[in-house]
Structures are given as structure tokens and as C-alpha cells.
Amino acid sequence: MPVTVQDLARVLERAAPLAYQESYDNAGLQCGNPYMEVRGVLIALDCTPAIVDEALRRGCNVVVAHHPVVFKPLKRLTGANEVEQTIIKAIKNDVAIYAAHTNLDNVLQGVNRKLADKLGLQNLQILDPKSGTLGKLITYVPPSHTEAVLQALYQAGAGQVGEYSECSFRMEGNGTFTPGAGTNPHTGTPLQPETTREERVEVLLPLHLQSAALRALQQAHPYEEVAYELIKLENTHQDVGSGMVGDLPAEMSPQEFRRRLREALGVPVVKYTGFEKPIRRVALCGGAGSFLIGKARAAGAQAYVTGDLKYHEYFGAEGRLMLCDVGHFESEQFTGEIFRDLLTDNFGSTFALLTAETLTNPVRYDF
């Protein structure tokens, strides 16, 4: 069966849900027919007119990029700038463009995990976990159907707490109700008050999965009218959020660590702040990460690796850690490996899967 753009998007969004993108972002399908058959995918960090040209030259009708080409609303399409030129060229040539941006930054197996792996960090955690992404689903089930209901909820994505799956809380009690005249109750008789044994079942649930979980609950539950409560929680989600922090296998001097950065990332230069203590704990954020400097300090990191730091932001080190600016492109250059692994694992060799040869980094270095 042919793979469509929509199929491809589902796989990417299962790994990096659109609900996890930042409010300013515009991840997802940028242009193209979601029902179009995928003949080939070109993976790139950015999508430019040159990337669309390369996709056409190499037989690809889909570009999967990290950065959205449409970041701000477009008021017209006249080809006046590179963004408009990219969209016009893509539409004219039936090339779909898909972007996974801050939603891919904000998941445990995303951009920051890839960067951390390249640096050999261990004991990894999200640096700034998000709150407001979890809910608690509570329902009341006759004991004979509790396991079936729970399995349905687990299949829909509920009951996951960190590395623990199928997590729930159960408590027995009595449920009371009076079925109406036109009802067909699982237990009891219409118009007669009924008391029956029930189990109160509670599971944690990512809020973006609530529709799927409620459908699963309705289908697996034996009652005509299913009583449930869905409560939004302020708990932080330990697998969702910005940045990452971990430990080096052994202490390094600041000079050794900067050498490791240059070698692991293949960068010609690292901008950094003075720091003379040994480096063991490292925080990082792919892309522009100045907003996490305080979190890196609070996490006890001796080094914080990111890109796009401005002059005055370097003072945020306060002598308590070494800030390392490796460049925006350079800190995200391995994102394509995430796309490649996801698409290969799910679709195999169904279509051509190529990595862009066109360099989109606008920054050059003179030595």
C-alpha cells in the first residue's frame, strides 16, 4: 500500500506530538497535499529554494526539515523573499514540506538527546520539564471489566510514568444509580435504585491523547453511560521539556571539554566564558538556548552548550559555569539522523530516504 504524506506525518507526530511545540512555533505540514503518495523524502535542517531544487533533482516529492519555512504568517505570495520563493517553488512542483521543530526539541528522544549522545553524556534528564501537559483520568468500572478497560486505556497511551508502563491506581467501593425508563443497564432494572460493587480506576494521561483515551474508555466500558473525570495536572512531565542535563563519564578540564566539543560536533570554533574548574555535569540545548542559562546553573552544571548567545547573555554564567556557544546550525546538525531513524524504522525501504547535500548554514568562518 502506498505511503502518503499523512502517514509520514503521523509517524513523526507520534514521536514528537504537535501539542509539545512552543506557542510561537509552526511545526507540522507547511504545504502540500496530505493524501499525496510519498515517492522520496529529502531530510534537511532548513528548507530553502535550493533544498526544493535538490529534492526535485534527486526524485523526492517531500522535504522533512527541522525548521519551519513558514514561521510567521504570510500576507502574500509574490516571491519577494526566500520564504515565499520556497513555498511557491514547492507548490508549483508538488513538493510537500513538513517541519518538526520545538516539538522535536521538547521530547526525551529528540534534538537534545541526539546532541547529548554525541558528547557521550550519561544519566540524562530533561533540563526544564514542562507542566500542564498531563491529566488524571478517573473512571468507575465493575470489577469484571477492570482489566479490559485498563488495557484499552494503556493501548491509547495512558498509564505511562517515566520508564514505568501500565501504571494505575484502583480502589473498591459501592456505586449507586437508578436506570431511566428507556435504558438497558449492565446491572440493575430500569426505574429501580441499584447499588453495585465498582472499582475506582485512575491513570495518568498526556493531555494531547485525551480524545483517543476517552474513545477507548467508551468502547471497553460495559455501561451505557460511562462516568469519568478528567483533571488537568500541574505536575511536570519528566519526558517533555527544554534542554537536557547529564554527566560525562569522567571529569575533564575546561580545555579538554572544549576539545571534545570541537571533535564531536566537527565545529571549527567554540565561543566560551572563562571557567577553571573541572567539568563533569553538562547541560545543553540545541539551537538558541540562552533562556536556559539559569536552569543550567540550578542543575549544577559546570558547562552549558548551546547556540546563538548574545554578548550580554554571556554574563549569565556568573563565574559558576562555562557557557559554550557552538553555533545554532552546529548544535542541531544531527537532527536529520532522528528523522532518518524514525522513517526507516516505520517504512523501511518503501521510498527513497535521502539526506540533503545542500549546505543551508548561512554562517561561515575565516581563520
Automatic annotation (TrEMBL):
Organism domain of life: Bacteria
Residues reported in the UniProt entry to bind a divalent metal cation: H66, H67, D105, H328, E332
Entries under InterPro entries matching the protein: DUF34/NIF3 (IPR002678), DUF34/NIF3_bac (IPR017221), DUF34/NIF3_sf (IPR036069), N-reg_PII/ATP_PRibTrfase_C (IPR015867)
Gene3D superfamilies: 3.30.70.120, NIF3 (NGG1p interacting factor 3)-like
Stretches assigned to coiled coil: none
MF annotations from Gene Ontology: metal ion binding
GO CC aspect terms: cytoplasm
Keyword vocabulary terms for this entry: Metal-binding
Family: Belongs to the GTP cyclohydrolase I type 2/NIF3 family.
Subunit architecture: Homohexamer.
The protein's name in its UniProt record: GTP cyclohydrolase 1 type 2 homolog
Species in which this protein is naturally found: Hymenobacter wooponensis
